Amino acid sequence: MGSGTIKAWAFVHKWTSLVCTVFMLLLCLTGLPLIFHDEIDTLTEGEAALPGDGHAGPLQSLDDAVAAAVALYPGEQPLYMSFDEDRPVVNVTTGPSVKATREEMHLTAIDLRTAEVVGPLVEEGFMHVMLRLHVDLFAGLPGELFLGSMGFLLFLSLVSGVVVYAPFMRRLSFGTLRDSRGPRARWLDWHNLVGIVTLMWLSAVGLTGVINTLSTPLVMIWRADQLAEITAGSGAGLPRHYVGVQAAVDTALTAAAGTRPQFVAFPGVTFSSDGDYAVWLHGATPATERLLTPAFVDAETASLTAMRSMPWYMTMLKLSQPLHFGDYGGLPLKLLWALLDIAAIVILGSGLYLWLARRKPAARRHADGNSQPALSR
């Protein structure tokens, strides 16, 4: 490459890095505790004790679990139900209407062995703040899209950094740390070394983070495209009479043997249609547990309306989430993700230091030139 090309790539690297650095530092700092959110929740809150530990009979109906959650918040209606992977517990989300906002919803954990309330799940505290800062800066969809744009700038800075790194390293052996050249040269070498070693991880986490910020638009596309096609003949408006959610889940599981329910969207909410339950199923093996298949069950007759695999963009979204947080390989992978996250903080911090350290001598030379014009000439 010619010097002009290298300067152009260096310009891209400098300004994409500078624009996104502060926000990337925030995401790295908030992402660090989120990697261990299960362990932190257990330490700070403990796992809610389940009544009836000696219960050996069959599980209670999902309808009984819904009734217990609704009784806790009279006047509300069920909106969603999710299934705990490790315990016989379902989490029921209720709200005043199917258009309820996140702030209006209530989440209740129900023990399926006894249909008793384990406890309301309140989204507050340190981990909730970390999650909201990491996901949307407490700004909703605009915050998500803004952080997604910062993630894209990070990816551009990585690509441009590699382009600039290649000709620079022709003069040095890989891993060289020039301790005798002063702190700025030393930090530059550390910045380059850690950056190139963690390049693939940073690219993967950055791009999956960008994909995750597009979850709301992707769901809207899915609703306007595939969901509209599936439910085109189901009629308009919410049904007057609902079958129980247990019947809907049973219908879905019968149609897709070997799967397990992950969550249920009740009629009228975001992930379903006005006339159907949407029972989201996933595989029972490690290879298929991240792949979701929605089964739409008529809310009045409990008959199967449709079942279709998710489109490629929704599958991409679901697969990007565990890769981003590193929560699919147990504690060893979480520790690796934490170390790499700390390395990313070093890269971002050293890059900011290098820019500030370079500006100081230039500013000092400019000041000296203004105060001593004769000498400067």
Question: What key phrases describe this protein's structure?
Answer:
elongated, 377 residues, 8 strands, eight-stranded antiparallel sheet, disordered C terminus, 12 helices, single chain
Shape: elongated
Structural category: alpha+beta
Task: Please tally the helical runs, counting DSSP H or I stretches of 4 or more residues.
Answer: 12
Query: End-to-end distance, in Å?
Result: 35 Å
Sequence stretches where pLDDT stays below 50 over 5 or more residues = 365-377
Specify Rg, calculated over alpha carbons: 26 Å
Provide the helix percentage.
55-70%
What's the arrangement of strands in the largest beta sheet? 4-3-2-1-5-6-7-8
Could you explain the architecture of this structure?
The protein is α+β, with helices and mostly antiparallel strands and 377 residues long. The protein is built from twelve helices and eight strands. Helix 1 crosses helix 11, helix 5 packs antiparallel against helix 7 and helix 7 crosses helix 10. It is elongated.
Brief sketch in words of this structure:
The chain is of the alpha+beta class.
Itemize the secondary structure elements and their pairings.
Layout: H1 3-35, H2 37-44, H3 62-72, E1 77-83, E2 89-95, E3 106-111, E4 116-121, H4 126-135, H5 140-168, H6 183-197, H7 199-213, H8 215-230, H9 245-255, E5 259-265, E6 276-283, E7 292-298, E8 304-307, H10 312-325, H11 330-371, H12 373-376
Antiparallel strand pairs: 1-2, 1-5, 2-3, 3-4, 5-6, 6-7, 7-8
Helix pairs in contact: 1-4, 1-5, 1-11, 5-7, 6-11, 7-10
